[in-house]
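Lesson 9: reading folded outputs for more than one chain in a single document. The general rule is that every protein is listed as its sequence immediately followed by its structure tokens, and records are never interleaved. Here is the first one.
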Amino acid sequence: MQQSISLNNLQHVFFIGVAGTGMSALAQYLVGIGKKVSGSDRYFTAHQQTDTQQKLIAAGITCFEQNGSGINAGIDLVVVSTAVEDTVPEVQQALALQIPIIKRSDLLALIAASKKTIAVGGTSGKSTTGGMLYEILQFAGYEPSIISGAGLVRIMQQGKIGNAMVGNGEWLIIEADESDGSIVKYHPEVGLLLNIDKDHQEIDELINIFSTYQQNTSSFFVTNQSHPLAKKLSINIQHDFSSDEHTAGYKATDLVQSGMHITFKINDVPFSLNTVGKHNMENALAAATVAHLIGIDLSSAAAALKQYEGIYRRHQLLGVKNGITVIDDYAHNPAKCAASISACQPIAPKVIAWFQPHGYGPTRFLRNDFVHEIAAVLRPTDEIWMSEIFYAGGTAVKDISASDLINDIKQLGKQAFFVEDRNTLLNHMQPHFTENCVLLLMGARDPSLEDFSNSIFKNL
């Protein structure tokens, strides 16, 4: 990161790839603190505005096609994501004009340094836990800010993308991403580690990354003691809030799931949430723990989470039709897919889960983990379906198919089905539906998944 860049001195910032979840959140945040913001995206065309583009424009962000036309000498800083290559016209134009270019994570580090920051880390549950924390702090009158990796339904209801909000308070909640190693750039007041599961890197690499994250945390470092690898990093910097029995001195018990609703207790305080799964109890436990450490009592956290409305595409209920409960979920790594299926099992005696893997490299890397973790949670009545791997472009070697994963799962004695073209999925599934079942649709990175899931529900 270029040390001469100061957040206070920035007047006009341009984002290349501004429609991406991480980029759009930062762009909206900068508008919220009074900066001029513009950006381009490969999905923007002169003929039709996307929903995201319309919301960015409504937020005060000027949008351009990705052809270099948006870059001029009046721009102080250009922000790129890791996916943006040097050949993109905006990068070339910025270099020609000698405008500083930084990565998204470097800008987030600048923003985080300007506030008292709570950084949420872990390979699963970051968006949900961050959303719960935002709900609790907002309820308690802290007026927090948030930069999230997904839309909070409560903010989306205001017509916004939902992944960023600037509040008047001193606290900022961010997601600290381990997938590109950028988590080590942040120096939060409070660090939170939810879990460590094989995802983009091998476990040893992840432990090294999270160890640095722990060392960078200035006040409280809170870990999930029920996760064995996270527990290894449970040394608190100033206070001993960790023990073998508790998560930073806080324990969740008595989980009961009824349909799309869970109840449990944290240190004997009753909690009630309109969501599903043990993993969401753990997310709520993490959020309530951090909130309590910065001064919010558990009963206030419970009252806040009772009205928590969830995160976009995180176990999002699309509706119930013909006895089929349809749920859309962002699950995309082995642990998330297994947790998502498990969370749906108390709802109905049969779960039909569909998954679209993304990326040939990641699918190849995680093949055995997908197979064994999904197979381990499937009941005899449950089924797993997959369609072909989502390909976002590039030079990937296409030497693996989702059908390979399905065949491996079949070898383990589970009901597994491959439908190459997802547009024919419903026709193939129709005979498998019962009068009381869950249809769980899982996948990430593909921007058309929301429309696909809605289409499946509409055509049931």
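And here is the second record, again sequence then tokens.
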Amino acid sequence: MRRPALPRPAFLSRPAFRRPSLRDVAAGLRARLVLAFLLVAALSALTTAALTFREARTAILKRTQDTAIEALRSQVNSQVPDYTFPLSQQALQDLQHRLNAAGGAQRWTVHLRYHGSGLVPGGGPGRIPQGVQAKVRAGIPAFQRLDSGGEPWLAIGLPVTYRGTSEASGLEVYAQMPLREDEANVQALVKAAQRGALPAVALAAVPALIAASGVLRPVRELRRASRKIAAGELDTRLKVTGRDELADLSRTFNDMAEALEENVAELRRMEANSRRFAADVSHELRTPLAAMTAVVDVLDEDAETLDPDTAYAVRLISEETGKLARMVEDLMEISRFDAGAAALHLDEVDVSETVRKTVQARGWQDKVAADLPEGVRARLDPRRIDVVVANLVGNALKHGGAPVDVAVRVAHGEEGRRLLIEIADRGEGIDPDVLPHVFERFFKADSARARSEGSGLGLAITLENVRLHDGTVRAANRPGGGAVFTVELPLRQGGGETA
């Protein structure tokens, strides 16, 4: 005998697992942590490289200009004393030639000016910055880096004084030298910094991943524990390590899980007690109800011989006793489902014929418009399908009125062939707020109808019988008006009986 599992509370239903997409991974906390770590590493590497480049460039250029100024001053001090002042134009040209020849290592080009005359050209870019010239005329040595023709140059100016005095001789010496080699050294330094920064950022990915894993490990554990809680494993707890915020979160989760486990245990205990009470009461009522029904049946047969008031009372007692008996039977049936004792006896049947017999047995032929094709066979429990169809048709007649449409058909889907039984009425339909609750036990759409002919368990029993067949039943409203209930069952075929 197969025992169906008890329905799980909605909050304990296992969530559907979905593999994270690439977009989800990219937007996840791990990716953001790694990206932030890499950005910090890249910013640090670039900042360090920029500062290093600036300091190194300044040092290279300062060394070059200091060396050039000192070399030029040394040559001027050694060459000028060979001449007698005042200097002739020929002497100026000779001095210029000798200074140019002495500057082979620095590759400078010398220009001379004597007592405010024009510069004696010596090649090179052909211009000395005015700022340098102004300082030299004022007796101050000066230098300036400039760009000429897309190439870097260094301009140097030295005022010449008489030996042993600070008196200006009127001779001004200017030199220009290219800085191509220094610029090449600077560019090589830039490339070296770039080559060093990229591997540094790449290597930073390793500690970034390690750090992200360390931070996310408690989060992953929390996610796994949450899924276990959602799957019903309420004894799940997290291991708490450390004293940081994640440890506090783990402690809070454990407190929540403990409280949830206690509350669910209490709810299950109360639910089990209520089900046991209903089953016990129903069982205890069956014997006296059987005796009452037998007596009432006898009285009902003799009602015509009694006076009108007594006959009315007898018929009322007979009707109410019948309702009570049906309610007790429904409670007993629900108790069997709750206890997992409901047996399913499968047999290969003609579905249309089974539905037709259900309608005929209750005398509903004139109230039902049936669409029952021949040849639809399936392995079902005839008694339970009879209960399902009877409850749904009876409910449609009671709340929707005749005629009720009953149809049997076969549908093809991704899960294979499915058997569909549809019962539709032509009433006003079901309030959309009521639809989600129609299969709940003792639910009444109109709270004012505190008392009705039914037990309030008919649709709940229908749902349990359909579930026992591994099927589903749903309620909806038809576009043209009226409610429709659809029973969907797997289309089993083949003989035999199971229990």
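What the second record shows: The domain at 47-187 is CATH 3.30.450.20 (Beta-Lactamase).
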